[in-house]
Amino acid sequence: MRLRVTFPILATLLVLANCGETGSPSQAPQPTPQAQAMRHMLADVDQIRAFLYGSGNQAGAASAASDLVAWARQMPTLFPPELASRQYVDMSPERAKAATAAINREAGLLLAAVQTGDHAAIGDRLAETERNGCGACHLNSTQ
Ligand code: HEC
Question: Which segments of 20-137 does DSSP mark as H helices, in order?
Answer without folding.
Answer: 33-52, 58-78, 81-87, 93-116, 119-128
